[in-house]
Amino acid sequence: MAETILEVKNLRKAYDDVVAVDGISFEVKKGEIFGILGPNGAGKTTTLEMIETLREIDNGTATIDGINVAKHPYEIRGMIGVQPQTPGFQDKTKLTELIQMFAAAYGERVDPKQFLDEVNLGEKADSFVENLSGGQKQRFSIVTALVHSPKVFFLDEPTTGLDPQARRNLWNLIKEVRDRGISVILTTHYMDEAEVLCDRVAIMDQGKIIALDTPKKLIRNLLDRGFKKEQHVEQANLEDVFIDMTGKGLHV
Amino acid sequence: MRLLEIIIIAALVLRVGWRIYRRRQPTGSQAPAKPKRSLSPWQRKWFTIWVFFSVNIRRLFRDRLALFFTFLFPLIFLFVFGGLSGKGGGTTFNVAIINKSQAPYAKQFIAQLDKQKVFKIDKSVTSFAVANDKMGRGELDATIEFPQDFGVVRPGQANPSGQAIVHYTQNSQSAATTLTSVLQAEVQGINTKLVHTTTPFTVTSKQTNERSLSSFDYTFTGLLGFAILGAGIFGPINVFPELKKMGILRRLHTTPLRVWQYFLSVMLGNAVSGLMSLAVMFVVAIALFHLKVVGNYLELAVFLAFSIIVILGIGLAIGGWARNERQAAPLANIVVFPMMFLSGTFFPRFLMPHWLQNITTFMPLSPVIDGARLIATEGKHLTDIGPQLGIMAAWLVLVYAIAFRVFRWE
Fold first, then answer.
1. Within 13 A of B87's CA, how many CA atoms are on the CB side?
2. Could you read off the pLDDT of B93-110 as tens digits, one per residue?
3. Looking at residues A141-166, what average pLDDT do you find?
4. In the predicted model, what is the mean pLDDT of residues A169-178?
5. B93-191 domain in CATH 3.40.1710.10?
6. Domain spans of chain B?
7. pTM for this structure?
8. By C-alpha distance, which of A199, A128, A189, A182 is closest to A158?
9. Nearest by CB to A97, which of B31, B50, B55?
10. Pairing state between β A59-64 and A67-68
11. Mean of all residue pLDDT scores within chain A
12. Which residues of chain B make contact with A92, given a CB cutoff of 8 A?
């Protein structure tokens, strides 16, 4: 079993009377993609923001690589990469300059070209972010969060609003990040995304984790309980047709 | 002081020259030859500030709107107000002349008046109806009437005689009084030529050699203050809510970047862009409005950079606190308008009643404007303007203490 990188115990957060996160616990291993699934308002984003040091933790603890999140926020911020739901970058700034800025925010000096090449944005080095497509922007945002080689990488609903190719592209990118040994924690409300991408998933509802396991195991458990899908399963769907016809590759 | 300046300029030139030289070198050999220097934790913090500062300065020069507000906007004000106050500094009266006399002497007299700088004769006015109308609207200060018999040689007299009449309205009494005495002096001069008498008492005026401040000196330093106010407050209150709306600050918040590092990079950027903008104002004022700077430029630059940073603190506090434009704008107006009108931006503070001067001395922009004037046009040194620097330092501490406390990343 791989070592644990993130440990969350009884994490709780309440806004006035509403309990957003209600005493949840889970662990994330080194080099796995961990998905937090759930409907809107389940407390996914709040959970992430507490671990990212952006929100105060009401109760419980979170530790990354043995370091307490609430007690050492600046140390934690240097160890994590964060991809927010809607990444925003200042305008009229070259991609290379933005990479330099983010690296500098972590106190690092880097070669921006190398990072841009990693996500196929090398040709766009001198462009501004406002001239990128949605998928390019998302890839760029990911690379800005990795400039300091973090141990844990958080993504909040990374593929919302992207077209199917860009989504698949991003999935591959996230897998590559995982393969570098970085633990990835992402939230999503797309079940297909979780099934394809995540090594393990936690399903959240009303601030609580109601299930936690590998996608395969969760499906097997359901089947073992005698669940049968009533409809006939197609061998391909319209999305597959679309991707087959337009090509899975990059559309820059 | 001179030596210090030379050393600083020489260091800058060498630094820029070295960078250009380095850039010329083929890039292929440069990349591997430059191993990553490892920085101490403290150096890293400053490296962060430096990168943020330099990227944002480069960004400024790509942003046309920001360039307009940084460089052209203050110049527009300079042209408007400089044009208003730059007319030689004397008082002039707008008058109309209505001449009913046919005598050549009257014409001669009017021609004489026309040469005087004190009078600005509106030649389009030829009737009382038009004159009264214009005086009613305040376009004319007075109308001088020369009656039919003005300048006519009466029977039995050797010389011409007559009486000019100054017409004025209720609102131009003081102008009329001055005008009347100017005319009287003029007439007196003629009288003594015509009728030889000795005048026992006379008054004559003589200019002293002491250099005095022209009204433009006050206008210009006021406009410097206005430019500092605009860049320091309206800059952040427009930019910060936008950065928050787009989640840019929130994204930075997930990094170990500290608020003081971010503030310092903004302070540095504003000080540099602000100094450039003020330098342009100085150049224009010296070239076109004959501003005479007698003070030391290095001290002036240091003082103005300090001023920019003090005023910027107010903008950082408001912009850093506000969640959106709707919170920022009203608060900024409440803070800015009193400073704009009471700190001597558009009219000098010495025109205010004493009690108001005493209060406004302590406003943050007043020592900025006074200090800039003392150094630039009166040749004072930083050591002479202790009171101003003291007030500014107090504001610096207060304003940044608030700014740090209320800053929000989102």
1. 11
2. 888 888 888 888 888 888
3. 92
4. 94
5. yes
6. 49-85+214-406, 93-191
7. 0.79
8. A189
9. B55
10. antiparallel
11. 91
12. 59, 62-63
Q: Tell if the CB–CB gap between B255 and A74 is shorter than 8 Å.
A: no
Residue B177 has pLDDT above 90, yes or no: no
Two tokens, residue A113: 């070209």
pLDDT at A85 over 60: yes
Contact call for A101 and B55, based on CB within 8 A: yes
Tokens linked to A71: 């007690």
Q: What are phi and psi of B273, to 5 degrees?
A: -65, -35
Least Cα distance to B404 among B261, B265, B259 occurs for B259
Centre a 10 Å sphere on the Cβ of residue A32 and count the other Cβ atoms it contains: 18
Interface residues of chain B, partner chain A, Cβ below 8 Å: 31, 36-37, 39, 41, 44-45, 47-48, 50-52, 55, 58-59, 62-63, 243, 246-248, 250-258
Chain B interface includes A157 (CB < 8 A):
no
Which of A72, A76, A100, A109 has the most B C-beta neighbours within 10 Å, making it the best mutation to test the interface with B?
Answer: A109
In chain B, which residues have their Cβ closer than 8 Å to the Cβ of A78?
255-256
Chain B closest-CA separation from residue A82 CA (Å):
7
Contact status, residue A82 vs residue B257, Cβ threshold 8 Å: no
pLDDT digit string, tens, across residues A93-133: 999 999 999 999 999 999 999 999 999 999 999 999 999 99
B91/B71 Cα distance (integer angstroms): 32
Q: What is the largest CA-CA distance in chain A?
A: 58
Query: What pLDDT score was predicted for residue A49?
Result: 94
> How does pLDDT run across B291-336, given as a tens digit for each residue?
889 999 999 999 999 999 999 999 999 999 999 999 999 999 999 9
Instruction: Determine contact, residues B75/A124, Cβ cutoff 8 Å.
Output: no
Judged by DSSP in three states, A111 sits in coil
* Nearest C-alpha neighbor of B216 from the set B337, B362, B92, B376: B376
Confidence band for B29, pLDDT divided at 50, 70 and 90: very low
According to DSSP, the residues that pair with B325 across neighbouring strands are none
Complex-level ipTM: 0.88
Integer Rg of chain A from CA: 19
* pLDDT tens, residue by residue, B128-158: 888 888 888 888 888 888 888 888 888 888 7
Q: Are strands A183-188 and A152-156 parallel, antiparallel or unpaired?
A: parallel
C-beta atoms of A54 and B52 within 8 A: no
- Chain A residues in contact with B63 by the CB 8 A cut-off are 92
| Count of H-run helices and E-run strands, chain A | 9, 10
More confident residue, B175 or A223: A223
- Could you tell me the pLDDT band of residue B28, with boundaries at 50, 70 and 90? very low
DSSP class per residue in B43-112: HHHHHHHHHHHHHHHHHHTT-HHHHIIIIIHHHHHHHHHHHHH-STT---EEEEEEE----HHHHHHHHH
